[in-house]
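Repro case for the chain-ordering regression, as requested:
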Amino acid sequence: MSKAAVAPASPLSRWWHKWRFHLNILLLLIPLGFMPKYFADAAMFRGDSGLGERDLGTIQVGPWQVQLAELRDEAPRADGPAGHFKAFNAALCNTCINEVKAAYLRIGKPRSLRAAGTIFFGPPYRMATNLPIPSKTKADAEIWITLEGWDGSMHQASIPLAKASPATLAWLNKQGGK
Amino acid sequence: MSKKSKSRLWFLVHSWLALPIWFFVLIVCVTGTLAVVSQEIVWLANPDVRASQPDGAAERLSYQQILDALHKAEPDMAVRSLSQPDGSHFAVTAAVTFADGSAPTLYVNPYTGAIQGKSPDFNFEAFTRALHGWWLVPFTNGYSWGWYLVSLLGLPMLASLVTGLVVYKKFWKGFFKPTLRFNHGARIFWGDFHRLSGIWSIWFIAVISITGTWFLIQAILGDNHISVSTEPVVPVIAREDVPRTDSGAPAARISVDEATRIAREQIPGLEVSFVSMPGNAYSHLYLGGRGWYPLMFQTVNVNPYNSKIESQFLIQDRSALEFVTESMRPLHTGDFGGLAIKLIWAFFGLLLSMMVLSGLLIWTKRTAQATAAALKRGERKQARTTPETATEASL
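-- result from build under test --
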């Protein structure tokens, strides 16, 4: 304020004195830059861009089929002391909606239904779960889908983690390097 | 330090708090103002979200009746939750998932159960809140840095309030003798405006800056995994409590109205303004609404198989600290007392935006005047002395 009254000498410092308090308008570039990402995310959560960023196709689990997708094609996200998590979405086949009681996901084959892993939440057309990824997971690990029927039956299938989430595999390799 | 140079220092501090970031502060104030009344703006713009009553005699449907109407209209659609926004002029919103996996919000007439419309692709409410709250910076690992950027503004805002009152000597006199001079040029007008709106906004600026600073603290606590919540973590329903059916068909669940009736019977005075359907076979019906203390919600988890309330979080369950921390968000957003409070918040939000602008205008005009004066003096005195500078006397 006060010293601004002194006429500055060089053109650069004149420019600086004239515009220095308007440079913060450039902060507007931040939301402008993130806007495409914001709308892409909004569309994803509305389900307008499919089940997830990486569709893993339909997997036969016993008599039922389930479509699985990796929500985001990226490394697992940290959640403090709870560790790292990877979000997956799933959809049940239309004919099995009323037969399947619950769906679970786990790294490694579950020994029993009680240890089937993390349970999916949400309507059968679009269920979601957060799979814990221990940083010591082996690169050749498999993720197991367990479907539990209302009649007490249980069916399982697996896919290699490398196929389910290449980004997780890359992240695990990096963890091993540390 | 003399009294005069002290107040000059405060004045300098007051100027510098917002000046270098005035545009950022302005946009945050304007988007915050819009966010407060975003629901009302959508109500005005989109007839689908209005609860139009078909004829005077029609009564509001219960949540189960609305669910039944939705299932009848769209048999394949799954309903995730129903919610009655604050204000009976709003349609009930239903979060649904269609068979193709799309998951929009539907606006449902509370008298007929008719689906009036689907949420448009551009969600104005969510967008203004995201722009205001975290500058659209995505949350990837804990709180977004945009959230920090915006919530940090609470501190200079609080400091602006304090230094403004220190600089404005005997500001309380402004309450009795409001001054707003129109005929003395723009500088005088904006100066008067800045001070007048400032003193009438003391309470509001204090509320917004303190609650804004709370958002900063909340992020710091959250990112360091420190929780002050006493809200119970609800375990999934025990395996033995979820029936197995010989037919292989889903087990019967109690109706939403039955769950509401049970909850209201056991918790007198419980308002139910939203109902969330069980997320899977092992989860509860979750319902709740505002309590007698309107800044907080009371929620109940009902087991849909045996009708037991397995968890609840009521006003009286909160710790003293939670009364403070949980009040922060509604105090910031003004969404705890219907339209009247929102309009008050929006009005003062607009005034606060104008204070940022008027502060900038005062500064530029004063600097321009001071520069012109200095140049004149410089010409007269032929650079024998350094030009005098503006002081707080010219505020």
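Ordering looks correct now. Chain A has four helices and nine strands.
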